[in-house]
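Field reference: "sequence" (input) and "structure" (output). Example, Pseudouridylate synthase 7 homolog isoform X2:
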Amino acid sequence: MLGCPCGWFFRVALAAAALLRPEQRARLLVARSAPRARSQAPGSLKCFLGSLKMEMTEMTGVSLKRGSVAVEDNDSVAPGEAKRQKVSGCCPTKGQDGLENNSLPSSEKVPGPPKTAGEGKKNSDPRSEEEEEEEEEEDGLSEEGEEEEEAESFANMMKHGLTELDVGITKFVSSHQGFSGILKERYSDFVVHEIGKDGRISHLSDLSVPVDEEDPSEDVFTVLTAEEKQRLEELQLFKNKETSVAIEVIEDTKEKRTVIHQAIKSLFPGLETKTEDREGKKYIVAYHAAGKKALANPRKHSWPKSRGSYCHFVLYKENKDTMDAINLLSKYLRVKPNIFSYMGTKDKRAITVQEIAVLKITAQRLAHLNKCLMNFKLGNFSYQKNPLKLGELQGNHFTVVLRNITGTDDHVEQAMNSLREIGFINYYGMQRFGTTAVPTYQVGRAILQNSWTEVMDLILKPRSGAEKGYLVKCREEWAKTKDPAAALRKLPVKRCVEGQLLRGLSKYGLKNIVSAFGIIPRNNRLMYIHSYQSYVWNNMVSKRIEEYGLNPVPGDLVLKGATAACIEEDDVNNYSIHDVVMPLPGFDVIYPQHKISEAYREMLTADNLDIDNMRHKIRDYSLSGAYRKIIIRPQNVSWEVVAYDDPKIPLFNTDVDNLEGKPPPVFASEGKYRALKMDFSLPPSTYATMAIREVLKMDTSIKNQTQLNTTWLR
């Protein structure tokens, strides 16, 4: 292995691991230490990429994935990000608190309306049956084929994109010396537990099913043959021309018929059953009772009135983001995803634990999925009257292991004490702004400027950096012909933003870009303008800290309830830097009454925007604004440095480990390697990578990391 140059600190860029096949996912060197000879470079610093993108802070409503990672942000109103009078979040709604998923990568599938869990009837994006069938076919594309596409030109992608400087991330609050460590060498090195609205941290601790006399027997899961289940599913999903399916009762008893009736009604929502005699034999006949709407709404009369309509459960998952997990659960349960609800989305590249609610699906059926799903566990079931709502969570609790750290015990102590006592700058992380050469905030700025031709061009034009081959061909076709139909034909996966926009342009024409752009799901469209707000906020908070440091000054803003007010000179001593907020630009916020107010105005004026008129001709794109704390101090901070010899061993137990009775790891007093195990809680709309950046004193951008001497281990 090659050594590292003296004093250089590098880490591979976020989310790039998605471009490699699993067996190729590179582990990359991260190093920043005192000068040393090349021969002394620690050869064991292997880093499993995608790591720093572990933005387990959440995003509103939809998981915006970049590469393999979805960053999450909460559209919920956090105490530190409230609006004046009417408080509203401003996250790019892929995701939730800090997770979704921020930027929307062109190479990723964008969840269409059926994939937007929790929206229920509010989901009004119309799609034709033909489009739905087309997307079903697209879902069938082999992952192997996609991975081959993704494997191309990984290193090339690393050469493009933004640096932290480009998006205003320039300051640190602490003075300690940075050190290196490997984040997420194993999936279990990054675990996220949701903090519910009652302040309790969600844990998977009980797999038992509540006793309910109304539940059918376990026989409902085995009484039907695989062929019968397939026929019933095709009937349920209108995949054939049959109007009914008849199942012969081989061992005709009343009990057997009852079980078959129960199995069909519980496993295939929307189907009704009846018993018929045919030529001396008994048949159970399944049929649609309520047309095509039957699938969307579980049968009302089959649910006991004494039971809450929603089954709440804790979902433990590995290597799946929340939206993908819900889509998979809905597929196995044969229901639509929009009957699920949740408080925030969680990222893919982690072990995450969160609460989910589902309408009129029994705990018995949900628990049965534990027998057939890998890397999932469902438990802690209860029946409640109400669903969950986005933003109801109080945040997330993180357990993070940084392996093979180079810092001394004193370095670690200084860094962690600073994180606990001072905190970190509440920047929007790099994932908010995109991974490609076209930042999402540029698209957002063009939307706010009403420059729709530029919006179209920014999304569709050829760009530098690695992309899937078919996207490159699509962009080339668009640049050559400006024919949306021709460019669309180059895309086998049409649910990406490019595909949706091209479909809109084919439908509405090049002279009606506004309507064409409107085909993209609302949350994804708003993500662009929220990205621009985040870009402005990052730049302004850096200017604020540069100008005034880490103490409140007259003219700073603080929140009094949901209303922002300026600090008067006589009141300065009554506040700390942790009380200070700064606005995301909008028509319903006020600005600081010092130099930074003029800096806001100058920045928006340079972007041809009027800070005094942030209302847009199209209501969806009018920015009301919000307030965000400039410094976040994590809660429940604890840490320990442990020694270990085997880089493959887990360094703490997960919830599933505890359920299985595995003993916690035992550490020796000395070992070949040292690891920093960190625990901390963050509120919604904050980024875990920004906390880790403060501890390690590292730049999290893709472009900056490739300018450093990165050693690849394959």
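The two ends are 10 Å apart (CA to CA).
The first strand starts at residue 27 and ends at 28.
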